[in-house]
């Protein structure tokens, strides 16, 4: 995906609340995100050694618990961050630091996917920093996510307050290591990462001068935003593009259910939709179509912007 395309996505798709599927939120609907879809298996071996050489990988010895003094709190883990200093104005300069906050995935391909940072780095002589979110990729307090979540003492440290405290600690460490005391820090994130960026600016205003939260559903919580907020926008887009298309899709759900409830109905649907395996439930089909329609909306918006 070229960088210009990516810039558009970053800046303009404010209406898209993009959640990715993780094992934690597997109960949520899969809402497509526009970055190239990777294997979302969070236990996959991650590897950032294939990045171009200006991206250097480091590990910070991170404290598991930033807020308590229990014995377990002192446990540490290795947290990965990646630095690109190719464009940086240098120590003791006031060139900024652009800090990209990892979200609910390994950070492996983020330095290449997030063109926004490298696009703007030369102009601002910025130091680029990408930090991986705790419990993902190579930044796990246990070998696997499953192990970490099984352990009830450890599971509790998997939260966003701890995650942004991690980011604060690493950014202060980097400021020191690079003699960058004069460098203002701009924190940047997309989707959940954007929520983290905005919370970071609120909680650590002395560390970040500003935050860029892209496509971040900051107020997408119960009792603030209706929980059908995402899909009501998807529906609205279809309605605006074609009323009859909208009506057809709307009617299809109950028709699918009706056919599925008949004898051999699921086999019939499996054949009609050429599913790779036999459908066990109409939900499997509806969920898939849902996903496809939502992706189509992202692409529609994309083309309008282009
Ligand atoms: C990461 O990739 C490099 C180069 O492709 C390879 O040498 C290394 O063994 C890989 N590490 C892991 C943990 O997969
Ligand atoms: C930056 O300032 C520190 C403290 O004054 C000094 O020790 C260091 O050599 C300076 N670094 C550069 C690259 O000028
Ligand atoms: C139906 O269930 C089987 C067994 O669990 C599974 O392998 C298959 O993928 C399911 N079908 C679909 C369409 O998800």
From TrEMBL:
Residues 1-25 form the signal peptide. Keywords: Glycoprotein, Hydrolase, Protease, Signal. InterPro entries: AB_hydrolase_fold, Peptidase_S28. The keyword Glycoprotein applies. One of its GO terms (molecular function) is serine-type exopeptidase activity. The keyword Membrane does not apply. It holds the Pfam family Peptidase_S28. GO terms for biological process: proteolysis. SUPFAM superfamilies: alpha/beta-Hydrolases (SSF53474). It comes from the Eukaryota. Belongs to the peptidase S28 family. This is Lysosomal Pro-X carboxypeptidase-like. It comes from Capsicum annuum.
